Amino acid sequence: MSRFVPLALLALAAAPALPAQQGPSITLFNSGQVLVRRTLPLRLPSGISTHPLALGAFEAASLTSLDQAVRVHGLRYDPAWNEDAILRRHVGQTFWFREIVGRPAFQATLVAMDPERWRIEGTMPGGAGGVVFGRPGQLVWPAELIPAAPVTDVTFRAERAAESVRLMYQAMGGSWNASYRVFVGGGARVEGTATIHGGSLTLEDTEVQLLAGDIGMKAQPRAPMPQMAMAREVAADFGGAPSQEAVGEARLYTLPQRVSFTPGSQMVLPLFDPVAVRAERRYAMGGALMYWGGGQEPDEVEVPVEVSYRLERATGTPFGDLPLPAGGVSVFETDRAGRTQLIGQGAIGHTAPGEELNIRTGTAFDVTARRTQTAFSSTRTPAPTRTIATVSYRVELKNAKDSTVVVDVREDRAGEWSVTASSVPAVRRSSSRVIFPVTVPAKGSATLTYTVRVVW
């Protein structure tokens, strides 16, 4: 059975033979993918040479050189990071084994693996050595042989000698997500934050960029199981909000300061400075028509009234000019005593500058609705055979609030259909949607009636 190297030993040791990173730069994606760019102080001779690099766990096929005069000629990568994986790199090495009661410390040479075979010197009569199958005792690892990350043997082809090499590769283990807080009522404003999840990343003094957008997907190889670590918040002063720019069809946010990652860490920073906003609360009620076909419906039905918030984002305004990555939204309002209360939660998709926001946050408590199908009739025509139905509805809306509200009663239907009569004028939004905007007075009620002709 494999035995893992103690974490304390891993933390203390970094192989001197492996080059250290110089100012890495990474791009984090919402999907958990990480694009890593590193400059390694690696002495490369002209021609072909192989070097052990502690790059950690990564997608082997993605490794490439960013220097035109240096090409990755091949690599050998073992993502495992346990004692057996490290031992395989040192076949032929002589190790010390720990002293135990009645037996002094001794040395043995690793002859081969699968199974392990060790040559122990001076154990046979006459001082001759012998070979044993299996681990002959508790192996004591020299600190310099324990890498700080999985090791990759990379073969380079260099047109000329170089003192460093710039590499880029893709890894898994870090991610980020956006979230927003909308404060409605007096002093309405919006705040946006980015939460960075370090995952299994271990990087020092790192330039960090966050990419928002849909860049497509490719088939992913099975990644090695990440080292488990408890998530913990890391206090960090980022010196303000990140700068942002458009790259291709995505948005890129660059943190103002370099940061360091340890496994399981989380960091939170503002996406932008708080901005004033006008938030309009809206009410809507779903329709009753079947999208295809139709029929009679049961008696009076309670229908939830949906609540949403519309946020204006005109271009040329501080809020309107902001690109907004997809993320969760929390809506807050103050109560009579001035306490801030969470009153709604929703989500937005990637939103370009100038596009308004409509955030659905739940259902209304004080605005209620009941719908009744009041009439239904249908006929079938000869060839071509078709069904023509006439359906009538009554919608009773009640408002227990101290202010008037407008409820959009919505009907969605595919195919051939039309509103033939209604007590409130119908507003056709598209070929498949009609809206009836019903005004409901404070502490009062309103009734909508309408008839629809549908053909299928």
Task: Describe what this molecule looks like in 3D.
- There is one protein chain.
- With about 450 residues, the protein is mostly beta strands.
- It folds into three domains: about 5-95 and about 145-170, no CATH class; about 190-270, no CATH class; about 280-305 and about 360-455, Immunoglobulin-like (Sandwich), CATH 2.60.40.
- It is built from two helices and 33 strands.
- The strands form six sheets. Strands 1, 2, 4, 12, 15, 17, 18 and 19 form an eight-stranded mixed beta sheet that branches. Strands 16-20-14-13-24-25 form a six-stranded mixed beta sheet, with no helix packed on it.
- A hairpin with a 4-residue loop joins strand 7 (about 105-110) and strand 8.
- The longest helix is centred in the first third of the chain and has 6 residues, at about 5-10.
- The protein is elongated.
- Mean pLDDT is about 85; it is low at about 1-20 and about 220-235.
CATH topology of the largest domain: Immunoglobulin-like
* Rg: 33 Å
The portion of residues forming beta strands comes to over 45%
Mean pLDDT: 86
Largest sheet: 8 strands, mixed
Based on helices, strands and strand pairing, what is the structural class? mainly beta
Number of strands: 33
- Count up the helices: 2
Question: Under the CATH scheme, which architecture of the largest domain would be assigned?
Answer: Sandwich
Helix content class: under 10%
State the oligomer. single chain
What is the molecular shape? elongated
What count of domains describes the coordinates? 3
